[in-house]
UniProtKB/TrEMBL annotation:
Pfam families: HPPK. Its EC number is 2.7.6.3. It comes from the Bacteria. PANTHER family: 2-AMINO-4-HYDROXY-6-HYDROXYMETHYLDIHYDROPTERIDINE PYROPHOSPHOKINASE (PTHR43071). It comes from Shimazuella alba. The lineage of its organism: Bacteria, Bacillati, Bacillota, Bacilli, Bacillales. Gene3D superfamilies: 7,8-Dihydro-6-hydroxymethylpterin-pyrophosphokinase HPPK. This is 2-amino-4-hydroxy-6-hydroxymethyldihydropteridine diphosphokinase. The gene is folK. One of its GO terms (biological process) is folic acid biosynthetic process.
Length: 169
């Protein structure tokens, strides 16, 4: 029997119809073998980080229960990106769907294609704020407490909570 792990995924979109794509991505993840969604954060409209000359993003975090080993989970999240016709031109640029693995239980990975905790998690309000909403008591495997990490964010990142209900299909 494979072990169940609680993992956190960060989803983001800023091209096409982001809200519809987020609902579709959540449904695809929930129906993937070995993944079930336990909880979804609110939706956040966020100003772009990194490459600034692009539309605002819509971001959220999903808490999942998975029996997939980390590389298989990455494979599945990449399939979801592809099935939403992800178009990606430049690094940090606009995309129809981005799915990042933020955390995988309390495990740390430094593989060529997979780094967990996600290497830019602590500097990104668009990932940390929704993560804090669904897992307020969390301590990262690297020792940081999530509430302290949120307080330590630079306050130049614009982020606004929106109404959103995961349809849970
Ligand atoms: N924790 C992780 N979650 C998702 N992808 C990861 C992770 N760690 C490493 N990667 C690798 O990053 C590669 C590039 O990912 P992607 O194109 O989504 O980057 P990006 O969205 O432009 O930037 P960012 O990773 O900062 O969000 C993927 O092919 C994947 O192998
Ligand atoms: N606000 C926001 N900015 C980003 C995002 C994202 O999801 N939200 N994803 C990126 C991909 O590397 C780069 N910049």
């Amino acid at each position: 029997m494979s072990k169940h792990v609680i993992a956190y995924l960060g989803l983001g979109a800023n091209l096409g119809d982001p809200l519809d794509q987020l609902q579709q991505a959540l449904a695809l993840l929930h129906h993937s073998q070995g993944i079930s969604i336990r909880q979804v954060s609110s939706l956040y409209e966020t100003s772009p980080v990194g490459y600034l000359d692009q539309p605002n993003f819509y971001n959220l975090v999903a808490e999942i229960d998975t029996v997939l080993p980390p590389m298989q989970l990455l494979n599945m999240t990449q399939k979801v990106e592809q099935s939403l016709h992800r178009v990606r031109k430049e690094r940090f640029g606009p995309r129809t769907m981005d799915v990042d693995i933020l955390l995988y239980g309390q495990r740390i990975f430094n593989l060529p294609d997979l780094i967990i905790p996600h290497p830019r998690l602590l500097e990104r309000a668009f990932a940390l704020v929704p993560l804090h909403e669904v897992a307020g008591d969390l301590t990262l495997p690297t020792g940081e407490k999530i509430d302290q990490a949120v307080k330590a964010l630079s306050n130049d990142q614009w982020i606004q909570k929106k109404t959103f209900t995961w349809q849970g299909r």
